[in-house]
Amino acid sequence: MAAVILVISEKEKDTSSTSGMETSKNTSELLGYRASTVVDKRMKAIKDAYLAKDFETFGTITMKDSNQFHATCLDTYPPIFYMNDTSHDVIQLCHVINKHYGKVVCAYTFDAGPNAVIYTLKAHVPMLLAVFSKYFPTAEAPKDYCNKPEEYISAEKNRASLASQELLEKCDKTGRQCTMGEVKYCFVTKPGPGPVLQPLEESLIDLQTGGYKAPSEKHKRLNIGGTNAAATNGTATACCAKGKSSCGGAGSPCCVGAVALAVGAIAALAFVYTRKCHK
């Protein structure tokens, strides 16, 4: 499995994950239904699909769960808008690509933010880069835009062979306007080992003062073109603790989320799952 991460916005969100989740809990009837009826079944189904290496089922659940999470945000009063028009364009293009191939070859998910995480299999990464580089062009040099600049350059040069004319014509029919700079960064990553227990000396909290401690080199963000690429809205933190009703971490999703993704030094994919908060 692989993932293509499109960083659409680096700006701070209008509504934080914690306050948004609290408002949803108090006003959204859909959230209650989702927590009581949907989440447990999807947790089992997506785990089974993952273990069986059934990407099509895995991808379908991932997209449906992302959609329902954002439907919950819209059902919140007042409504919460985490995605933007570019996010919606990514969703539309993914569905066009899947329909073209007659199966799920790419699966989007969005946490509490506009940035897209698109799961796929390694064989489809060049095709996705060819499509996304056409519809989300950048004026930046590849080395300043993508963590895999050679792969990105190759996909652009070989677009005609990677993405058929028929597929691109179908994508054109979405009405997507190729506006420069709407995607700020592109990350290509692959499955990582999952959560790892770190020694105390790697903590970001000073155990003596309780204050913040600067991260070591091991935990610094990916450096692209000499600048820190902040992809926090594409990072979900599995942080719902029993008895608590808040999620922590910049860019973390509301407690009933669609994805658990660790974007660290190399943006390593951990695992996708659904979850719910216990009151």
How does this model look, in words?
The protein is built from nine helices and six strands; from the N terminus they run E-H-H-H-H-E-E-H-H-H-H-H-E-E-E. It is α+β, with helices and mostly antiparallel strands. The strands form two sheets. A four-stranded antiparallel β-sheet has the order 2-3-1-4. A two-stranded antiparallel sheet has the order 5-6. Helix 2 (about 30-50) packs antiparallel against helix 3 (about 55-75) and helix 5 packs across helix 7. It is globular and about 55 Å long.
In percent terms, what proportion of residues is strand?
5-15%
- Helix fraction by DSSP (H/I, runs of at least 4): 25-40%
- Which runs of at least 5 residues are low in confidence (pLDDT < 50)? 225-279
Shape: globular
The total beta strand count reads 6
Strand order of the largest sheet: 2-3-1-4
Secondary-structure-based class equals alpha+beta
- What is the rounded distance between the termini? 34 Å
Mean pLDDT value? 80
Please, what is the oligomeric state?
Answer: single chain
* Largest sheet: number of strands, sense, barrel closure: 4 strands, antiparallel
Computed CA radius of gyration, to the nearest angstrom: 19 Å
List SSEs in N-to-C order.
Answer: EHHHHEEHHHHHEEE
Q: How many helical stretches?
A: 9
What order do the helices and strands come in, and which of them pair?
Layout: E1 2-7, H1 17-27, H2 29-51, H3 55-75, H4 85-101, E2 106-109, E3 116-120, H5 125-135, H6 142-145, H7 149-157, H8 159-162, H9 165-172, E4 185-189, E5 223-224, E6 227-228
Antiparallel strand pairs: 1-3, 1-4, 2-3, 5-6
Helix pairs in contact: 2-3, 5-7
